[in-house]
Amino acid sequence: MKILGIELAPLHIPLERRLQTIGALHFTYSFLFFGFGMLFFFLYLFFFTNYYLIPLAYFVWYVYDSQVSHKGGRRSDWVRRWPLFRWSAAYFPLELIKTAELHPRKNYILGCHPHGVMCQSHFINFASEGTGFSEKFPGIKPYLTVLTGQFMFPIFRDYFLLSGSVEVSRESIDWVLTKEGCGNALAIMVGGASEALDAHPGSLTLKIKGRMGFIKRALMHGANLVPVFAFGENDLFEQVPNPEGSKVRRLQNFLTHLLGFSPALFHGRGIFNYSFGLLPFRKPVHTVIGAPINVDKVEKPSVEQIEDLHKQYCEALVALFESHKLKYGLAESDHLKLV
């Protein structure tokens, strides 16, 4: 039924569908509001109530514990296996496709593409067991790498750490690849926050040509590179038109450089309607994990070695996309645009 052009959700839907919506709601609203909500709540307690000792005590804990986000994190397998994440994966649904083995005696850097508006599939795949990563890749421990700022919000940081997420900093990557033994897989959003601004339905633009940092770290530690492509990630939200050169895009680029995250102007569906809200649309996402590229350790890689491996990685990524695109709803004429 539609009212004023808004398609309303039916009142009577199966319990399974309601649980799936709760799972998607948990991720989306945690991502958007949990961190800032706890920050403002603690500021309120400190400045406007007699409970100022609570945020003060937490600040002491935060200072003491601030290093953990770039020293391997604090994962909880129990939290990662919560039904919430299985419900969230079933909401779209999400599928994790394995094309080759990852051996526990090696370490890996997974290059995840595209970023999407909120990295919905990448979070569920690598920061939870919603799609059964550990069953598909036994002996491999995934780490989702995210912006350092995600670990600056009170309480939210502690919750986020339980997912196995760590900072996407050089210090953090070096720690996991040297201090945590073998069988580790660092999932890195190669396109970064700025790529989220290109996350329009049907978009195949990837920001990768100038992204050499993950290549250098792979060489320095001898970590195999694995291209990962999520078919459908960019279809989960609608964005305000923001072509390169437009006033909207220039403002977004400025704020991205200033704030460290991209202020995408987007909408999805609502809880009780299918037309407008903050929940992602129910569209399938198929994440294909490609075959690893063997990387020999070079402690001080040259510019030429970095560029050669970067070229090899881009070729493997394009080949992965081309070999699966028809299976997941794209046309023969659809091709990646690497910028």
TrEMBL record:
Pathway info: Lipid metabolism; Glycerolipid metabolism; triacylglycerol biosynthesis
Transmembrane portions of the chain: 21-42
Major place of residence: endoplasmic reticulum
EC code: 2.3.1.-
GO molecular function, one term: diacylglycerol O-acyltransferase activity
Bilayer disposition of the protein: Multi-pass membrane protein
Top-rank lineage group of the source organism: Eukaryota
A GO CC term attached to the entry: endoplasmic reticulum membrane
GO biological process, one term: triglyceride biosynthetic process
Subcellular compartments: Endoplasmic reticulum membrane
Enzyme class: transferase
Record's keyword terms, sorted: Acyltransferase, Endoplasmic reticulum, Glycerol metabolism, Lipid biosynthesis, Lipid metabolism, Membrane, Transferase, Transmembrane, Transmembrane helix
Family membership: Belongs to the diacylglycerol acyltransferase family.
Protein name: Acyltransferase
Species of the source: Elysia chlorotica
